[in-house]
Design a protein that fits this description.
Blueprint lengths: L5 H8 L4 E2 H8 L3 E2 L7 E2 H5 L6 E2 L2 H11 L27
Antiparallel strand pairs: 1-4, 2-3
Helix pairs in contact: 1-4
Length: 94
């Protein structure tokens, strides 16, 4: 499952506020597929948190977003307004 799809999953499968144990039991084994890199599970990500109760689907989603690895970020240091860092020779100034 892609990370952005998890918010809908949480809203469908869980009742909030949801204790950590219920989240892990209900959706913990769901595999998260990053755009680049190795997959992980919701359980592995939530285990990095010390949150005991999630107030809403958005709260749980925000926790995932803060704790997923770099493989979920996409292209690192990408900026669609300019070049890559250290690429001064192709820089255009107006």
């Amino acid at each position: 499952m892609r990370l952005p799809e998890t918010r809908d999953l949480f809203a469908r499968k869980l009742e909030f506020p949801a204790p950590r144990s219920e989240v892990l039991e209900t959706v913990g084994d769901t595999t998260l597929s990053p755009p680049d890199g190795e997959s992980t599970t919701i359980r592995a990500v939530v285990d990095r948190s010390d949150v005991e109760t999630f107030d809403s689907a958005d709260d749980l989603y925000d926790t995932l977003m803060m704790l997923v690895g770099a493989q979920f970020i996409g292209r690192r240091y990408y900026d669609d307004r300019g070049g890559m860092p250290g690429d001064e020779e192709n820089e255009v100034s107006f």
